[in-house]
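Preliminary data (for renewal application), S-adenosyl-L-homocysteine complex.
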Amino acid sequence: MTDHRFFVEPEQISDGRVTIRGPQARQICAVLRLQTGDTISALDGSGCCHIARIGSLTRDEVIAEIIETSQADTEARVRLTLAQALAKGHKVEMVVQKATELGISGMVVFASERTIVRPAEDKIRNRLARWRSIAREAAEQSCRAVLPDVDGVIGFDDLVQRVSQFDKAFVAWEKEKGLLLREALKDAETGNRILLIVGPEGGFSEDEVSQAIAAGAVPISLGARTLRTETAAIAGCAIVLHSVEQAVSRNCSGDTKS
Ligand code: SAH
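Predicted structure:
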């Protein structure tokens, strides 16, 4: 991958060219001030990285010729979905950004019994758009090959119904003293779909934890200390994704160093 990475829709790639319009074209031309002859990486979201040389550019349209296509190898070996409870202020925004950098495949935001903030429908639509744009920027920045999907805001009952779609589901619960997340992941296999549920500032009610367990989620501990919701989410993602990471270090050009 090159230093300038952009997620594009598959239809933006045709005849060996990438065509970029709208805000991304303005960013390339006016913000990054790239020139004809400079190279960019176009990520089509399927894991393919197209390195392309800019042939023509204006603030409205950038056309680049593809010079190399390869499979990016920056994705995690498991597909982790983070279920994050709505939280106050910009906490969810921060979680979207950090969890995307760490390598989640998707995120779903939910409201539960003790959720403190309850934004109106129209505000939720705006927030969802903002979360998706943060995920895109974070994915581009961190050399991701796949753009995590952000969904929400759903109710806790809906979330519980989704548990069965995963190979493994965990509910982070500060009252769980026996099973650490690290231990619970010991038999995780490549390709597993994993769900990690993190509660709001007010925590889960006992009833909600029972509901999650009945649906097949396993309560896990993130350690002896009670973490804030955003810390729990980021630490939980790091634990899951680090535990399945291959023992190689990579750089953004796709080379692997042993
Ligand atoms: N209000 C609660 C704490 C909520 S912390 C209290 O004061 O007791 C917010 C969320 O972070 C929790 O719902 C849980 O999902 C997660 N969490 C925080 N610390 C945790 C820990 N040590 N182990 C597992 N989950 C934790």
